[in-house]
Write a structure and sequence with these properties.
By secondary structure, the protein is of the alpha+beta class. The protein contains two helices and six strands.
């Protein structure tokens, strides 16, 4: 009887561990400033349409002419596809504008809220990331 109790306990423990694994596999948006959104324009250097997140890398020139390389995190391809994104809609060399929530530590990385493509089309980043609260007409300061 002891052997079957241990087996049962082990099986329940393994099941509970397996059920909790997906929660550990995904991170939160905690590294990003939830109350700050900024807008800037730059040139795409890389676009990664990959799981678990889509990434846009872009070079952004500030008012003083200095260039800064930004890494912008998007939702996963499934979410973005459902709201109209396509795997090939952003290309290296495109000049795009983004609205983002920057990293809390000040590094040039951010969570995407919205993107404006070269043709003027605007796409959001899906529900989990939340909507842009500023417009593309706002001063960027970047």
């Amino acid at each position: 009887m002891i052997r079957s109790d241990r087996a049962w306990t082990s099986a329940l423990f393994a099941l509970a561990l397996a059920a909790g694994t997906p929660a550990f596999a995904h991170h939160s948006f905690a590294p990003y400033e939830p109350d700050i959104q900024i807008q800037f324009t730059g040139t795409v250097t890389k676009f990664q349409w990959t799981n678990p997140h889509v990434y846009i890398e872009m070079d952004v020139k500030s008012a003083d002419g200095q260039s800064k390389h930004w890494l912008i995190e998007g939702a996963n391809p499934g979410i973005l596809n459902r709201i109209g994104w396509k795997w090939n809609m952003i290309k290296m060399g495109d000049e795009i504008s983004v609205i983002v929530s920057p990293l809390r530590n000040g590094d040039p990385a951010a969570l995407l809220k919205a993107v404006r493509l070269p043709d003027g089309t605007i796409f959001g980043n899906g529900g989990p990331a939340g909507p842009a609260r500023i417009s593309f007409d706002a001063e960027s300061g970047q």
